[in-house]
Specification:
Elements lengths: L2 H13 L3 H14 L4 H13 L3 H14 L4 H14 L3 H14 L4 H13 L3 H14 L4 H13 L3 H14 L4 H13 L3 H9 L8 H13 L3 H13 L5 H13 L3 H14 L4 H13 L3 H14 L7 H13 L2
Helix pairs in contact: 1-2, 1-3, 2-3, 3-4, 4-5, 5-6, 6-7, 7-8, 7-9, 8-9, 9-10, 9-11, 10-11, 11-12, 11-13, 12-13, 13-14, 13-15, 14-15, 15-16, 15-17, 16-17, 17-18, 18-19
């Protein structure tokens, strides 16, 4: 069996879900032909399906070197690896390259938008979703994700229009149902927003939906219920900075300041420059009378945030207070 035959056998086994056997054939192929780009790519697929994301990324980088003609395909999967590893900037570079090489790749535009949104750049993500929608107007994810960006920019009415379009295409889209509910709440109807969210409950619960529900519960000053939803979401895998930062805000409102500091610090271990957590940590430290640490957190906040951030004025007032207490 030559290298190409081994690769084809490995791919057939992978299609059958026989990853270990597929890997044996691909290793055999690479032993015969170490620069076989397709073998490296297929091995990357096996690693990815096995949850070995970093190993998959290594394989895709090798494939990119030895099979440049298939760069768009390889970069797409490599971008997904970097995104899953939390390497947002490298993921963005991959997806930008995908759409440069293949401008008609709707999924490439969607994933580029997702990474930009995750990097806190929703205004840059919207044109990506617009490009995806032009190419695939019935793509539910593109519409729902566009709504998420508009919601992040506090353009709630326009966001609802996107969610409604997504729901026309798929009435069961949990992302769209949740987004619509949170926007309704932000527009001054939190009870109705909560009711809309509760209409799309599932068993087991959908973690992002629990996070959204906690946001509305916070608006309703039902902080203990909000914390319970966040804790459940984290147990189910929603271990991202927004969840921990929101938890910290609830704890502050409950007067549990040291516990709030821990939640904000946990958020920052997920994303060291997450602006809401930087401000939240500074405020909680101040309430704990830890002024030196509060000033340090505030200076980092002012390094990362800009004057458009809704916490900017409050952060300035907090800095003045901390300086007076020095």
């Amino acid at each position: 069996m030559d290298a190409q035959q081994a690769v084809e056998a490995g791919l057939a086994l992978l299609d059958q879900g026989k990853r270990d056997e597929a890997l044996e054939h691909l290793e055999h192929a690479l032993g015969l032909e170490p620069k076989h780009g397709q073998a490296w790519f297929a091995k990357g697929c096996v690693m990815s399906e096995s949850g070995r994301t970093r190993d998959a990324a290594h394989c895709y980088l090798q494939a990119l070197q030895y099979a440049p003609a298939y760069a768009a395909l390889i970069l797409f999967d490599l971008g997904n690896c970097f995104r899953d590893m939390g390497e947002g900037e490298r993921a963005l570079e991959c997806f930008q390259s995908v759409t440069e090489l293949d401008p008609e790749n709707a999924d490439g535009w969607i994933n580029q938008g997702v990474v930009l949104d995750n990097l806190g750049r929703p205004e840059e993500a919207i044109p990506c979703y617009d490009a995806a929608i032009r190419l695939a107007p019935e793509d539910v994810d593109a519409w729902a994700n566009r709504g998420n960006c508009l919601r992040a920019l506090c353009e709630f009415t326009d966001a609802i229009a996107c969610y409604e379009k997504a729901l026309e295409l798929n009435p069961q889209s949990r992302a769209a149902l949740a987004g619509r509910g949170i926007c309704v709440a932000e527009l001054g109807e939190p009870e109705r927003g909560l009711s809309l969210l509760d209409q799309c409950q599932s068993d087991p619960p959908f973690p992002p939906l629990l996070i959204e529900r906690a946001t509305i519960l916070t608006q309703l000053e039902r902080f203990e219920e909000a914390i319970a939803d966040i804790d459940q979401a984290v147990r189910l895998g929603a271990n991202f900075p927004e969840a921990w930062s929101n938890r910290g805000e609830c704890l502050v409102r409950l007067g549990q300041f040291p516990e709030a500091v821990i939640s904000f610090e946990t958020a920052l271990t997920r994303s060291s420059m997450f602006v809401p957590a930087l401000y939240g940590k500074a405020r909680a430290l101040c309430l704990c009378q830890q002024m030196d640490a509060a000033r340090e957190a505030l200076e980092l906040y002012f390094t990362v945030a800009d004057e458009e951030d809704r916490r900017w004025e409050a952060a300035q007032q907090l800095r003045e207070f901390c300086e007076e207490e020095e």
